[in-house]
Amino acid sequence: MTxxxxxxxxxxxxxxxxxxxxxxxxSLHAQxxxxxxxxxxxxxxxWTLIPTAYxxxxxxxxxxxxxxxxxxxxxxxxGRVDTVVVYKIDRLTRSLFDFxxxxxxxxxxxxxxxxxxxxxNTTTSMxxxxxxxxxxxxxxxxEVTGERIRDxxxxxxxxxxxxxxNVPLGYDLKDRRLVVVKGEAQTIRTIFSLYAELGSVLxxxxxxxxxxxRTKLRTHIEGVRRGGLPFRIGHLYTILRNPxxxxxxxxxxSTYAGDHAPIIDQDLWxxxxxxxxxxxxxxxxxxxSKDTSLLAGILFDASNTxxxxxxxxxxxxxxxxxxxxxxxxxxxxxxxxxxxxxxxxAQEIEGHVIKALxxxxxxxxxxxxxxxxxxxxxxxxxxxxxxxxxxSQDLTGKDIKEIYEHVRDLVTRVQVEASSIxxxxxxxxxxxxxxxxxxxxxxxxxxITLPAELRRLGKEKRLIIAAHAPASNxxxxxxxxxxxxxxxxxxxxxxxxxxISDLAKKERVSRTYLSRLVPLALLAPDITETILEGRxxxxxxxxxxxxLMPLPLSWVEQRSVLRFSAx
Length: 567
Prior knowledge:
The chain is of the alpha/beta class. It folds into 4 domains: 7-145, 3-Layer(aba) Sandwich (Rossmann fold), CATH 3.40.50.1390; 171-285, Putative Large Serine Recombinase, Chain B, Domain 2 (Hect, E3 ligase catalytic domain fold); 299-465, no CATH class; 476-561, no CATH class. Helices cover 44% and strands 17% of the residues. It has 21 helices and 20 strands. Strands 1, 2, 3, 4 and 5 form a 5-stranded parallel sheet that branches. The longest helix has 34 residues, at 125-158. The chain is globular. It starts with 6 loop residues before the first strand and ends in a 6-residue tail after the last helix.
């Protein structure tokens, strides 16, 4: 038990960049000393210092994904911290939205925080207003800095300058300029020449493997060597489309003349691009289409049984499925148990996997969080994020064969269970594809887990229902219902109308409909916010909400009934 009057204080420090952290006395030490001195000055109030150091060196204030901050918030939830002491409020966060989340956690556990250099009392409305103003300026400063960096990056690209990232095969970096490496340049010429001759990336890869040609071998600062591996199909597509080999640089859909020497001449470049375009058009037209099973060999059920692709035809239309091996090898006479007989719609499960990959690749925050061990300077990070977006666009295109090749390059396993789908990504393959110098264990994988629900239809058939929500799943009708409910509730609360009957007449709706809709104004704030942002469960609709009426008044029970995560 905490003694009455005793206030356990934690000092939190943060520095955005890693520059200077190796010094004997750095910014984190200075912030911590100031915090400890402030706590000592409040000793008469019962303030005591918690010895745990909550230091985040090299982490931006624009995200909550910081190890020391996560530990601090966990200790607050467990009741180990009463007051958080920071040097300035922007050390805690630069985001107004993130700050609201932190304050919610603090309030829920009767904790508070103090900024040493900024005096305000958050228990008063004026204090909270002052704090919000300070945070708004901090967030504004961060956004302006980001815009300035992006503008400088774009201006440098227009001048043809190399702006960082992994140096591509065929070049080396000297005095911040790309210079041609003779041996690697010959490999690039071989890749382009063979593709122009063979007209197929699959045949190109086989030819390169026979010649034992490899990817660029890189030696990182720590002396760790990466690369020198056989080419992947996705990597070959990237090389064949990369205008850098034509002596140009690419930036946000535009191409500019580079200040480096080209490796490929214009005639060969045009021939390769025409071949790539022609092959894509042929595949889109269906002239070479086959029922490709995207997840064959890598899809498993909850019992780790591999699912086998199969199909059936009805009225001239072909339907593809993935089914348990026991449905392939078992006899028709054997009666299946209730736990046997998984059968999934191929189009549905493949669609969910592709959607999950595109969401992941299109989200810079999630992408960078997966590579926290990588040493990324701003230019490399920007280049990798842009490459990820390009890869995401390829996955949403119409080129089925290209989608297949990208997915098979990156995904090593998909496991479907009763309440989730887990997608395992080859970390090494993804880091090479995006040009990220990753130093983590090569065997370490990246996983994406999606909420799922399996429902049995018939004896052995199972279909995936509501496997996951896209990044934004805004339901216009649901949002309209929430907005109208809050508007009508406010009119009743403020006595703008005398009764529900009067309100129904005024709004020209039935009294029954209005009575059903108004209680939606009493939804938990986080549920309402999630619906407005389009992040609600995919099976949550206006009809389902009405079917669950009356909803409980308890916010905890509402989250349980509507299947929202507990807060």
